[in-house]
Write a structure and sequence with these properties.
CATH class of the largest domain: Alpha Beta
Largest sheet: 9 strands, mixed
Helix content: 40-55%
CATH topology of the largest domain: Rossmann fold
Number of helices: 29
Number of strands: 19
Oligomer: single chain
Strand content: 5-15%
Shape: globular
Length: 699
């Protein structure tokens, strides 16, 4: 019998339909690989050249001039057709080259197409050009680990997500030793150029490598990558040179699909508030795009909270002759109140459910939390600089860390400001939940930043929200609205007079579609007392069963489901927009290299416009850099871009907040973005943020 089953199983594995069902690749992947992205008009020419664009102006940090003298005077360069025709004599554009490429930092959908674009352009210019991929990020450069890329490898990953082809890593080339080892690898390979695909820190590395390798004649080009969308390049006059880093659109769409599904679930099950945290530590671009994609009931934008001014507190202080500086910026407690009010408003119209979207770094925009982060970063950095062991090795347990902080109140080590950690800091910090204390004291990431993604920051907010909702419930202000028609039907079915009972139970019986139990009725006891006063108790002296049923339906239970969206989105296969964007970035990279550029970032201008208006550019990295505190000391880095509160996209979201909250009788306004559709005419051609900003700029 067993042998018969094995024979049947063997036969099944030979069946073509079974083979297809179990194959590693499905039809979607096959179609993706075959897709050929359209190219900007300039790349249809046999060769390109670079034109300097003088109109862009940068305010250069003096330290950038000191550290990057060879590339600080770079200008914005536009890629244009060279005038060469097919069949013309070869030029320097066509000379044989060796080019290395490395992925740096977290994956972002579209990275493989940067390689594909670079590879195709290089082989088109000269079939003898060679492309090398450094393995597992910058470590591959430092340690000389690389492979030569060929057509089979590149074709295998066209239009697919991830950085699987050559992997990635987070090592930074930030010491003299690492720089020396990297230079040794690059020169020993005989590379003509190196391409670094990464975020703000990776492009900072690109600038320093360009400076280091300048005299060796090795070109270095950066490519803007981050799903957070916080690489948005503008000049000193606000002219946009790079509207969005690649991978952002795909991640936002992936998150929006999942959150849109939760909107459907929430409005079906009508008993949960879904709390959705999306990636974005220092900027809320993803949260803003998700809001536009899903119309979630409430979306918090960190930059908006930081810009908040409590005018009531400010005026109260002014009337007493002083300025209350704590009125500037949102406090954690005030934010929890805002969330509670939204929950209460929706419950009043029968909607004790909803979807709340928060950016990963929301607490970084809260005053008292930001102060703690700055102070703790300084304390940890100071300890690391003055001891043989690092802070987290020396104090592995939370209690040991807290004890060290308590000692700082009275015993400040040399080099630390006496006011850095005082008794009030210690008192406020000890009032935080232990899990959040531990989170604030957790090991910083490779950039020296607090790792918000590793801490359930939403639990801090939810704890305060639940605490305040309980108070509102006791005050009789948090109630679920009862549909008037349902109330009347229930009462009539029980043989009770709806009007007579209604005026006793509800505060808005005469004029509302949804009825709210009076604030004074907060329990069965107070309900019974109200009915007794009007002689409306049952013959047995108890609250009538139908009335009890209505009352129970009005009593809210705040239930939540929490979700984090990050790694799933950055591992998604790219949208058509990101496929096209990254392929053209790869083509731009080769044009910059073939025309002698170094210390430039490949970019596509007019990205917010329709494809016909896209303009390949080389943007100078050095003039974009400024001094910023990292790991307790000032370092020269590329500035990250936050949400512009004056942008049309944010202004639109702000204008429709009340509508999307939908704290009125009637349907919610949820938008269903649908899955990422690689084919078909319904797939959007750019992020909604960029679309709205482009349209809004006309008005």
């Amino acid at each position: 019998m067993a042998d018969t089953r094995n024979i049947l199983l063997d036969n099944m594995f030979l069946d073509e339909k079974i083979k297809q069902a179990l194959a590693d690749e499905n039809q979607e992947i096959i179609e993706r690989r075959a897709y050929i992205p359209p190219v900007c008009e300039v790349f249809k020419a046999p060769q390109t050249k670079l034109e300097v664009v003088e109109k862009y102006r940068f305010e250069v940090d003096p330290e950038a001039s000191n550290q990057l003298p060879s590339i600080i005077d770079n200008k914005v360069q536009r890629v244009v057709a060279s005038g060469q025709r097919a069949g013309d004599a070869p030029s320097s554009f066509n000379q044989q080259r060796k080019i290395g490429i490395v992925f740096s930092g977290g994956p972002a959908p579209g990275g493989h197409n940067v390689i594909a674009g670079l590879y195709d352009a290089a082989k088109r210019a000269n079939p003898d050009n060679r492309i090398f991929g450094f393995l597992v990020g910058p470590d591959g450069i430092i340690e000389g680990e690389y492979i030569e890329l060929n057509a089979e490898m590149v074709n295998r990953y066209r239009n697919l997500g991830g950085f699987t082809m050559i992997k990635t890593g987070r090592t930074k080339i930030d010491t003299a030793e690492k720089m020396s080892l990297s230079r040794e690898t690059i020169l020993s390979m005989g590379l003509d150029a190196l391409v670094i695909v990464g975020g703000d820190d990776s492009n900072t590395n690109a600038a320093f490598l360009a400076q280091e390798l300048y005299k060796d004649g090795v070109q270095v080009i950066g490519v803007p990558k981050t799903i957070d969308g916080d690489i948005q390049v503008r000049d000193a006059d606000g002219n946009v040179l790079c509207a969005m880093s690649f991978g952002f659109h795909t991640a936002a769409r992936a998150f929006s699909l999942a959150i849109g599904n939760l909107c459907t679930d929430s409005s079906s099950d009508i008993k949960y508030w879904h709390i959705c945290k999306v990636m974005g530590r220092v900027a809320s671009h993803l949260a803003l795009e998700v809001a536009l994609q899903t119309h979630a009931n409430m979306t918090l934008i960190g930059e908006d909270l930081a810009d908040y001014v409590d005018k009531r507190r400010l005026e109260a202080a002014r009337s007493k002759g002083y300025t209350d500086y704590t009125a500037y910026g949102m406090t954690l407690r005030h934010l929890s109140r805002i969330i509670c009010e939204a929950i209460v408003e929706r419950a009043a119209v029968g909607k004790n459910y909803g979807v709340l979207v928060i950016p990963e770094g929301i607490l970084e925009f809260i005053n008292e939390i930001q102060v703690f982060i700055i102070k703790l970063n300084t304390i940890i950095a100071h300890y690391n600089q003055t001891h043989d062991k690092d802070f987290h090795s020396a104090f592995p347990l939370l209690e040991a860390k807290l004890d060290y902080l308590r000692r700082l109140v009275h015993d400040k080590p040399a080099g630390l400001s006496p006011s850095l950690w005082n008794s009030r800091d210690d008192e406020l910090f000890n009032a935080l939940p232990p899990f959040f204390q531990e989170g604030l004291l957790t090991e910083r990431d490779s950039h020296g930043n607090f790792q918000f993604s590793q801490v359930p920051t939403e639990k801090v907010l939810l704890g305060l929200v639940e605490e305040y909702l309980a108070i509102l419930k006791e005050q009789g202000r948090y109630k679920i609205g009862i549909r008037k028609q349902y109330y009347q039907k229930t009462m009539l079915k029980a043989g009770l007079d709806p009007d007579r009972f209604g005026h006793v139970i509800f505060k808005n019986f005469d004029d509302q579609q949804y009825l709210l139990v009076k604030e004074s009725i907060i329990s069965f006891k107070t309900l019974g007392q109200a009915l007794a006063r009007e002689n409306l108790l049952g013959s047995d002296g108890n609250v009538p069963e139908a009335v009890a049923k209505i009352y129970n339906a009005s009593v809210p239970k705040f239930k939540t489901q929490t979700h984090f969206y990050g790694y799933d989105g950055r591992g998604s296969d790219p949208t058509r927009f990101d496929c096209i964007y990254t392929y053209n970035l790869g083509l731009t990279v080769f044009s910059l290299i073939a025309n002698g550029a170094t210390g430039q970032m490949a970019a596509i201008g007019n990205l917010e416009q329709e494809f016909d208006h896209w303009q390949p550019l080389g943007v100078p990295i050095a003039p974009l850099m400024h001094l910023e505190e990292r790991k307790g000391k000032l370092s020269l880095v590329l500035e990250r871009s936050v949400v512009d509160l004056k942008s049309p996209a944010f202004q639109v979201v702000k204008a429709v907040r009340e509508k999307w909250l939908a704290a009125t009788a009637g349907s919610d306004h949820y938008r269903h973005p649908g899955p990422i559709r690689f084919t078909g005419s319904s797939e959007e051609d750019r992020p909604l943020t960029l679309l709205i900003n482009a349209v809004g700029s006309r008005y």
